[in-house]
Specification:
This is Anti-bacteriophage protein A/HamA C-terminal domain-containing protein. InterPro entries: AbpA_HamA_C. The structure is a single chain. By secondary structure, this protein is of the alpha/beta class. It has one domain. The protein has eleven helices and nine strands. The strands form two sheets. It has a seven-stranded mixed β-sheet with strand order 1-2-9-8-7-6-5, sandwiched between helices. The chain has a two-stranded antiparallel ribbon with strand order 3-4. Helix 5 packs across helix 11 and helix 7 runs parallel beside helix 10. The longest helix has 29 residues. The radius of gyration is 19 Å and the shape is globular. The mean pLDDT is 91.
Length: 309
């Protein structure tokens, strides 16, 4: 029994490729993962236009709760979901006074947790921001991962943290600053979920999961632990000159593996420094050509609706 997924079927694998590797986070007490993804390559450049398309296709699912989307559908206005979602994103970015590119990491941590971790959305960052009158959440999204009895041994409330910046080490540092703030306010984060999550679901099966594990009936204890899902976007740092696209793609994959190999122990030490060894961590990385500049441009195009699909 698990929550329903909101990311559109097949859209993730249409645009992203997972790079296989053997790196793990050393010294982890709880199960976790370290996964690498990349976009396609054309003429020696990573196709950031594919990231624009993926974001645009899923913006409504990211912004609006399942119940809100169903309300649009029932009133015959489902064709307005994307338009209204973009309007809400623009207003949120202005109210939060953040760079447009910062929202790309928030959307991507939502997407990878749903699509590749099967930790389905309770509250996205934009929904958490809308609830800031009650508590200003530090998380870049809150998801729920149901145990499968094999790889996932217990139910987990998964807090999202993301960073998109030039250097991978800087991205790790920024993400762990968020993780530390989340961990220091875990009780408030969980209380926010308890107070708001039920209003965002309508399917009977989803509500059963919530009332069984997340928001139990009175005098019953919630049955979950807490963990972290982390998205890291960074600049690849490869010069494409002298290579065709197949060669460059191979070099990109190898560079990604070297990057994570060089920072695996650094990540492990950050976990130890934060005293979070008893939590599961799920890391997802994605290189871009120039991460800071591209993330701003991607979200600018998305928020303006200037994306060719």
């Amino acid at each position: 029994m698990e929550l329903s997924k909101t990311v559109k079927d097949k859209t993730f694998d249409d645009y992203f490729t997972e790079v296989e590797h053997s790196e793990t986070i050393s010294g982890m007490v709880r199960p976790g993962s370290l996964r690498l993804f990349c976009l396609n390559v054309r003429n020696g450049n990573i196709k950031s236009s594919d990231l624009e398309k993926f974001t645009m296709l899923n913006i409504g699912q990211y912004v609006f709760s399942r119940a809100k989307q169903e309300n649009y559908r029932n009133t015959g206005n489902f064709d307005l979901v994307t338009q209204q979602a973009l309007r809400a994103m623009r207003k949120s970015a202005k109210a939060r006074d953040i760079d447009a590119g910062e929202t790309l990491g928030e959307i991507m941590v939502y997407a990878v947790m749903e699509e590749k971790l099967n930790a389905h959305k309770l509250l996205s960052k934009i929904e958490l921001s809308a609830d800031a009158a009650q508590y200003a959440s530090e998380a870049d999204g809150i998801h729920f991962l149901c145990r499968d009895g094999k790889t996932i041994l217990s139910n987990q409330m998964v807090f999202g943290a993301s960073s998109v910046t030039g250097d991978i080490k800087d991205a790790i540092d920024i993400a762990f600053e968020k993780i530390s703030r989340i961990a220091n306010h875990e009780d408030e984060e969980l209380l926010l979920v308890e107070k708001t999550a039920l209003d965002r679901f309508y399917e009977e099966d989803d509500l059963k999961v919530l009332t069984s594990y997340v928001i139990p009936e009175e005098h019953k204890n919630a049955a979950y632990g807490t963990s972290f899902g982390v998205f890291l976007g960074y600049s690849l740092g490869l010069i494409p000159d002298g290579y065709d696209d197949d060669q460059f793609r191979d070099r990109m994959h190898k560079k990604m593996i070297r990057d994570i190999n060089a920072h695996e122990e650094y990540i492990a030490q950050k976990i130890r420094d934060a005293k979070l060894q008893n939590h599961s961590f799920y890391f997802f990385t994605l290189p871009l050509n120039q991460a800071r500049e591209e993330s701003d441009l991607i979200m600018q195009h998305v928020l303006e609706g200037d994306v060719d699909l």
